[in-house]
Amino acid sequence: MRIMVATCQFPVDADIRRNQRYVLHQMRIARGRGAHVAHFAECALSGYAGTDFASYKEFDWSLLKECTLTVFALARQLRLWVILGSTHRLTGRHKPHNSLYVVTDRGELLDRYDKMFCAGDGTGKRGDLAHYSPGSHFSVFSIAGVRCGALICHDYRYPELYREYKRRGVQLMFHSYHTGHVSPGRLKAMRDDVGPRLHRINNGSTLPEITMRAAMHAAASNNYMWVSCSNSSAEESCWPAFFVRPDGVITGRLRLHTAGVLISTVDTNERFYDSTTAWRDRAMCGVFHSGVLVRDKRSADRNLL
């Protein structure tokens, strides 16, 4: 199976109408360049609470719904799948979900992935958990025969999620991030956390830049999976959107702090190096060795030289 993926980035902010204009514009670019699916950043349409705006108090939910339906309508018109980062309202006093809407090329809402691991602590008053309710389900769907999954930002810290998606046969992951609008003071603190003397020997100067990208290399190669990594391009965004093939190699990357659309090809008939293919399934079933174990007393006794 072969599909074209458009990994999109733009400077997400609190202005829903502005975000919508970017989304619609980049959907048209994606379709014009032959893409089957356009993939957007975390909270691309709604903006990201705690970063792009303070909270959901007095948030314009009616406007968000109106703009969302416009995106669905254009997806139908263009015959384009869309993975749309946004916010999903719940009832009563429940905090909303931080979500990815899976929109088909008929403009229909097929599924919704809700961020399972929202950053924060047990009090629920810090990080994502101050603004969002966590989800509890995996989202698996197929685009032109390619089995796909969805994750959001901080989920990258939990490789168990990728393993579970692999167990469910996922070949292509849409992983949406939002590392935009980092203030100069916060950026300095993040760089200081790494340590200036270590910047030159790491692939980046902040933990998001170092660990998020490295985790995507590892997730792709450990699970033999394509990964589309979208991000906000709002300054400071730490890193630009990119795409990884199943051997962990980046095949394309956008420019930092610049709106753009990256087109990548997923061809499930193309073969890449996969060092764990012989034993991955066994490891996933709890058998933690390759080959055949030997019965030998010198093997069994680990207190001998």
In short:
The chain has 305 residues and is of the alpha/beta class. The chain is 28% helix and 22% strand.
Compute the gyration radius: what is it? 20 Å
Tally of domains = 1
Number of strands: 12
Count of helical segments? 8
Q: Average pLDDT across residues?
A: 97
Unreliable parts:
none
Shape: globular
Structural class: alpha/beta
CATH superfamily: Carbon-nitrogen hydrolase
Please give the alpha-carbon distance between the first and last residues.
Answer: 53 Å
Please trace the helix and strand order, writing H or E for each element: EHEHEEEEEHEHHHEEEEHH
Strand order of the largest sheet: 5-4-3-2-1-12
Approximately how much helix is present in the residues?
25-40%
Described by strand count, sense and barrel closure, the largest sheet is: 6 strands, mixed
Beta-strand percentage range: 15-25%
Q: Can you characterise this structure?
A:
α1 packs parallel to α2. The chain contains eight helices and twelve strands. A hairpin with a 2-residue loop joins β6 (140-143) and β7. The strands form two sheets. The protein has a six-stranded mixed β-sheet with strand order 5-4-3-2-1-12. It has helices spanning 16-32, 61-78, 159-167, 184-194, 196-199, 207-223, 280-284, 297-300; strands at 2-9, 37-39, 81-88, 97-103, 109-114, 140-143, 146-152, 172-176, 226-230, 242-244, 250-253, 260-267. It is an alpha/beta fold. It has a single domain, classed as Nitrilase/N-carbamoyl-D-aminoacid amidohydrolase.
